[in-house]
């Protein structure tokens, strides 16, 4: 491993976490009045904002509409100031389009689209600050926004990354760990049924290690789902108290 | 011009204490929660069956009606029902029909045969009428209408077969959540403060100056372009800010609540109504008066 020691001999990572420890998660639902649903999510230093519009009539070309279910339209973008080096295009480049496509696939697995024939659901996510795990922050933020919009889903979708160093699986990678030369795996999970919505890994990894890596990512997702759950319940309580009379 | 600026502040924590007894009475669920594994119940909106278990698919409150279990989400788009009064915007003119955006999950339809055309109630719709549809309503126009029927996919069919419905002229549109509009016998109100309001069931509220006597010949397609006096415009802007204040505090909207809020806002300038502390004050007074009136 070049230079960086991802896991110290004492078992601590670069930012002082243990191998299976998640970063601090903070989230809030209903941040915008104009959108049907919105949410803000922080996973450590990664910050994401998601808004949901819909279900509404298919705009643009009518041919895109499906007669038996809703179309999900995702757009992923990164703020120009989100990375250390200023970005030129906030969205529309190859990486962003790929991410948009992955988000679309993830949410098609979770949203009960067959309830809304001929309509469209728009999900817009923006990374405000990027410190690794952009995909998972987006998925988690978008899940909260969908819940806020009252769109029916099978379950929450929780996503988390996991990496591999010194024979140990590391949960919820930060930017330094992601770019440090190790492997990174992103996993989106429907925690209650334990079904996988999306799994992605770009680097090479020995087949024997894959199971431990998947196991670690799944554990991390389940941890995240507990946090999301408490955020949703808290929001539910607050709103139902307000609208009681 | 003085500009009011303020720094970000910590959001006020809504106290959950003291209301716990009430919150306990409600059965709140989140997506994926199993409501019951008893097979004797019927599946309603907001639920799905997952291996014989009745599971919630939205976050909200469980409603039971005998054997039927539904989950009502806190916030959704408008679900139309026959007889609702709605305010909507024309998005498209097609053959024999207009498409209307009504905050519903699909655009609503207004058929040429379900509008009152000038010159007699029972006139046959000719091919000529089809060609001049854009003269009556064109893209971007606002209308008030009533829901005539609901199609199987959830789209609404509207009608304007009454003189109270039709194209809207000068006024202000306010959009709120559909669940905040209280269902009442009438949704058209001439408020004593000097303006009129249409409380659309779809959460679109229309404020307009109280009209004089109406010209019956025009069939609701006549729009007055007369200058609205400043005093009327002030009343309308004050009402708009009051509606936004009530919606922010999730107070049900109907003629009495709007009027009380208007009266309690008279102590303040119109532009100050939307400041958070003024808003709190006004809404609190309104709530108190509504409670006093009830019992």
From TrEMBL, chain A:
A GO term from the CC aspect: cytoplasmic exosome (RNase complex)
Listed GO biological process terms: nuclear mRNA surveillance; poly(A)-dependent snoRNA 3'-end processing; rRNA catabolic process; rRNA processing; U4 snRNA 3'-end processing
Subcellular compartments: Cytoplasm; Nucleus, Nucleolus; Nucleus, Nucleoplasm
Pfam families: RNase_PH, RNase_PH_C
Gene Ontology terms for molecular function: RNA binding
InterPro entries (alphabetical): ExoRNase_PH_dom1 (IPR001247), ExoRNase_PH_dom2 (IPR015847), ExoRNase_PH_dom2_sf (IPR036345), PNPase/RNase_PH_dom_sf (IPR027408), Ribosomal_Su5_D2-typ_SF (IPR020568), RNase_PH (IPR050080)
Highest rank taxon of the organism: Eukaryota
Main location group: cytoplasm
UniProt entry keywords in alphabetical sequence: Acetylation, Cytoplasm, Exosome, Nucleus, RNA-binding, rRNA processing
Domain Exoribonuclease phosphorolytic: 21-152, 155-220
Subunit field text: Component of the RNA exosome core complex (Exo-9), composed of EXOSC1, EXOSC2, EXOSC3, EXOSC4, EXOSC5, EXOSC6, EXOSC7, EXOSC8 and EXOSC9; within the complex interacts with EXOSC2, EXOSC7 and EXOSC9. The catalytically inactive RNA exosome core complex (Exo-9) associates with the catalytic subunit EXOSC10/RRP6. Exo-9 may associate with DIS3 to form the nucleolar exosome complex, or DIS3L to form the cytoplasmic exosome complex.
Assigned protein family: Belongs to the RNase PH family.
Protein name in UniProt: Exosome complex component RRP41
Organism: Electrophorus electricus (Electric eel)
Lineage per the UniProt record: Eukaryota, Metazoa, Chordata, Craniata, Vertebrata
Gene expressing this chain: EXOSC4
From TrEMBL, chain B:
One of the GO biological process terms: ribonucleotide metabolic process
Domain of life: Eukaryota
Alphabetically ordered keywords of this record: Cytoplasm, Exosome, Nucleus, Phosphoprotein, RNA-binding, rRNA processing
Gene Ontology CC terms: cytoplasmic exosome (RNase complex); nuclear exosome (RNase complex); nucleolus
Domain K Homology intervals: 171-210
Pfam families assigned: ECR1_N, KH_6, S1_RRP4
One MF annotation (Gene Ontology) recorded for this entry: RNA binding
Subcellular location, record wording: Cytoplasm; Nucleus, Nucleolus
Every Exosome complex component N-terminal domain range: 28-65
Ranges of residues in domain RRP4 S1: 77-149
Subunit note: Component of the RNA exosome core complex (Exo-9), composed of EXOSC1, EXOSC2, EXOSC3, EXOSC4, EXOSC5, EXOSC6, EXOSC7, EXOSC8 and EXOSC9; within the complex interacts with EXOSC4 and EXOSC7. The catalytically inactive RNA exosome core complex (Exo-9) associates with the catalytic subunit EXOSC10/RRP6. Exo-9 may associate with DIS3 to form the nucleolar exosome complex, or DIS3L to form the cytoplasmic exosome complex. Exo-9 is formed by a hexameric base ring consisting of the heterodimers EXOSC4-EXOSC9, EXOSC5-EXOSC8 and EXOSC6-EXOSC7, and a cap ring consisting of EXOSC1, EXOSC2 and EXOSC3.
UniProt similarity note: Belongs to the RRP4 family.
Protein name, entry field: Exosome complex component RRP4
Source organism per UniProt: Electrophorus electricus
Lineage, broadest ranks: Eukaryota, Metazoa, Chordata, Craniata, Vertebrata
